[in-house]
């Protein structure tokens, strides 16, 4: 594996661990695709640093389990802002 890919996977893994970030947030922060982030931290990182990979996996699993809550909040805010526009 190329060295820069290994470094990128470690840096992104550490970012997710430090910030509790989602794959989407990490991709936006690093300016790369969600697919690349996901592949780096779920597949490549296990080959490079299994301990970090397991910690990152725990964060990603937690984020996945909370995903429906974040989606519901986004929908709620969307309709609240629509109501405010219609009232004013």
Write structural notes for this entry.
- Keywords: DNA-binding, Transcription, Transcription regulation.
- The protein is mainly alpha-helical and 88 residues long.
- The chain has one domain (3-87).
- Helix content is 89%, strand content 0%.
- The chain is built from four helices and no strands.
- α1 crosses α3 and α1 (3-19) packs across α4 (50-87).
- The chain is elongated and about 55 Å long.
- The termini are far apart.
- The model has no long low-confidence stretch (mean pLDDT 89).
Task: Quickly list its features.
single chain; 88 residues; mainly alpha; 4 helices; elongated
Beta-strand content bin: under 5%
H/E element sequence: HHHH
Span between N and C termini? 58 Å
The radius of gyration over CA amounts to: 17 Å
Structural class: mainly alpha
Tally of contiguous helical segments: 4
Helix content class: over 70%
- How would you characterize the largest beta sheet? none
Bulk shape: elongated
Low-confidence runs (pLDDT<50, min 5 residues)?
none
Mean pLDDT: 89
Report the count of strand segments. Answer: 0
Provide the domain count: 1
How are the SSEs placed, and which strands pair?
Elements: H1 3-19, H2 23-30, H3 34-48, H4 50-87
Helix pairs in contact: 1-3, 1-4, 2-3, 3-4
The gist of it:
89% of the residues lie in helices and 0% in strands. It is mostly helical and 88 residues long. It has one domain (3-87).
């Amino acid at each position: 594996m190329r060295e820069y890919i290994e470094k990128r996977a470690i840096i992104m893994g550490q970012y997710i661990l430090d910030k509790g970030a989602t794959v989407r947030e990490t991709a936006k922060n690093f300016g790369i695709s969600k697919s690349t982030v996901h592949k780096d931290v779920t597949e490549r990182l296990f080959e490079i640093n299994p301990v970090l990979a397991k910690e990152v996996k725990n964060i990603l699993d937690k984020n996945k389990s909370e995903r429906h809550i974040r989606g519901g909040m986004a929908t709620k805010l969307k309709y609240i802002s629509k109501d405010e526009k219609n009232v004013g």
